[in-house]
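Summary for the funding panel

The consortium committed to producing paired sequence-structure records for every protein in the target list. Below we show the first two records in order, beginning with the earlier of the two.
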Amino acid sequence: MDSKKTFLWGASTAPHQIEGNNINSDWWVLEGQMPGMERSGDAVDSYHRFEEDMRLLADAGLNAYRFGVEWARIEPVPGEFSRAELAHYRRMIDTARGLGLTPVVTLHHFTNPHWFTEEGGWLGERAVDRFTRYVETVTGILGDVPWIVTMNEPNMLAMMMTIQRQMQSRPADDWQSPTVDNDTRPTLPAPDPAIGGVLVKAHHAAREIVRANTDAAVGWTVANRAFAARPGAEEKLRELEYIWEDLYLDAAQGDDFVGVQSYSSQWVGPDGIEPHPPHPDNTLVGTAYRPDALAMAVRHTWDVTGGIPILVTENGIATGDDTRRIAYTQEALRHLFTAADDGIDVRGYLHWSALDNFEWGHWEPTFGLIAVDRETFERHPKPSLAWLGDVARRGRP
């Protein structure tokens, strides 16, 4: 498999966050209903500008691009699949390959068709069957894709579904973006393990379809919060790690790889997760500046999974200061390669994000290697893109 030949250096995106006008998705509907939530709208129009975006990554020296296919576009109504949309995503794959970028394709990145959510979503009676029918269809265009992610951050998806249920019971509350985590916001609820169990079933079913229909390495990605225990809180740490992460890492047994997604670290005390205290170094989403968290996440994932190969599918920082982005990424990579030197099988590093984009309900946090003028959609590569490309050419930070 290609997955074993070349270390992947690249960047990641999600379709709803960059494409624009994803009108058949549940998130599009939610944006029009939820107080305090900004709309994705045209997003950054990458649906039409994907070749330009990919070319910027390739010209900088990167060799991989992680992007998603959007279920809500491919199956806008139950059982009706769009040949035009399948052809669109196939063009994206061919474009990436033509530019020398290894495509890493995500089948589900938080969003669902609106009709699926109306049926009950992931807790509906037909949820897994609906998802596997979609996977069966979409894998028809993915036969030569070397890396396929079945689902993005199922632990965070379960948490977001928990938030949405809470919001439905308190409709006057403003939206709480899952990307914001600081001491001024309500504590993010733990993901419901019952939802997690359904997502595990969906992942395992999708994995078998991917293996039957493609030659890809298949896995899913897990958000790792790099928890650390205060003295006396070790038992609480283990309890929270299972609910937040290890349930999903255990489900990766039998996968070809597991995607690690890490941004910061968080302390766990005897009473639970401690909020990030205010600090001048905190990021635009309120999290602590912790580039060392990536190696913590990779080591934890390696230990829990018993040595499944690791692909870093997201790591980055919400900041308006690109010099901080470079400093953060440089230190994160230094820690990552120390872990690799210790024997952890790391297959690649995909930065979040390729573009400044829609961050699930708001636009303020900027994670991108490329800035975008949202009026003209003109792309403005940041120094961090050239810097990461230079690292990729050297093969090491």
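The next record, for a separate protein in the list, is shown here:
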Amino acid sequence: MDRMTLPDVEWRHRAGLVRLAEVLGAREGTARFVGGAVRDTLLGVAVSDIDIATRHAPEQVLELLRAAEIRAVPTGIEHGTVTAVLESGPVEVTTLRRDVSTDGRRATVAFTDDWREDAARRDFTMNALYADPLSGEIFDYFGGLADLGRRHVRFIGDPYRRIAEDHLRILRFFRFLARFGDTPDPEGIEACTARAKDLMALSRERIADELLKLLVARDAVAVVKLMVERGIFEPVLPEITAEGAARLEALAAREAGTGTPPHAIRRLAAVLPLEPGVAESVGARLKLSNAQRKRLESATQPVGSEGARALGYRIGVEQAIDRYLLSAGPVEAAVAELTGWRPPALPLSGGALVARGLSKGPEVARALRQVEDRWLAEGFPDAARAEAIADEVVAQALRSAR
């Protein structure tokens, strides 16, 4: 690609953003947009996060923002990052950096005023694109525009060195390939394959974050297959095998066929073996949240025979959809029943059973479960029918107690 300018898209006019750029010296060339916002805009992808790189030292950034009465939060000031809180949302402002030392998990950095030096420490060429906030002029030091144009995910410089600096870049390479790439860069693939065991040094939280993003990317199915073939998962998630990749492919087809948006936890359940304890073990190893672990474990259970809405009532609509999409039988009708449906509440309580003569405690709990089971089996009838069911259940309970 020849010299380009950033399209004049909506996010560039967010409230306070132009003023922030001017405060940071954009007119003097001391501040530029960088990374994902530039990349995604050129690809026509919606932009969520905005990052600005600057030649100003972090302390000077704080002074400039405070003088301009822009709220400044030193979110990562030891690494040069200050968050400017605008009325339209936060913007991360980071001083140009170069790596002094790295150990594959974290880096010691020094600040610089050299744009190319800052670009050289980034991971992929498409992430090392800068743009003038005012004119939109794009600055490309490592062929990122050409790679972006052909959707080629390529490490900056030597892939082995980039991976040695941060082992997470192995997973990032595949995530970016799944999200943006058309063909894998041969040198990148070989380096990731050779260094896959480096993933063992990473925290499981970082691995989980990248994996969950990868699983919902555009070409997740093909890329997960490639990762399995190359042995990328073996050091940290040996449970993910070719069989899991095939299940993911089947799930993705079902999601598409039912118009169900992909969900990372559902897709993680698909790639794991359907063996007792596996989902629980992997969820704990990846340090997923309690809600994520619960959903992961639920997704691996059978759908049962009650019917789609009865299952949705008992375990939640999303979890019920997970189970159907991951099941072996026809799912279109069940998912259609559940999509957009809100489970009703049982139109009576234990107190209504006490009022009918049952004693508080286990007796009421048992009777209420019986009422609920019959109410579900009849398809959530109205309050009058629920009351009639309660009368029958209570009468039976009182006869049995005599």
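Regarding this second record: The beta strands are 31-34, 51-54, 71-76, 81-86, 89-95, 97-102, 107-111, 129-131, 138-140. The mean pLDDT is 94.
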